[in-house]
Amino acid sequence: MKTSNLFRLAVLCTFSVVALSMSAFAAEKKESVKVWGNCGMCKKTIDGALKGVEGVSSASWNKSTKMLDVTYDDSKISMKKIEEKVAASGYDTQNVKGADAAYDGLKKCCKYDRKKS
What we know:
43% of the residues lie in helices and 18% in strands. It is of the alpha+beta class.
């Protein structure tokens, strides 16, 4: 009886470790999205829009390429929600238009040419 219980415990532990490892590995994603902006202050605002957001482990916008590289846990936040957070700070992404009021509040050097809706 003791051997049977030990075997069950060993099998249960093995499956638990494998399941936890797979879910942790599968949840983290790295994606890039186009975000319009102009300068170093834009970078600070765009990167800052995702600082401390649950599920986002890193975010870095490149001024030259206009690409935002994001590493995030897709079990906690979606890429669409990430783009909405950036857009709320006034910056258009390739899929979400920035908030007009936030765009209007950007410094003059940060006002990029917006696409017509």
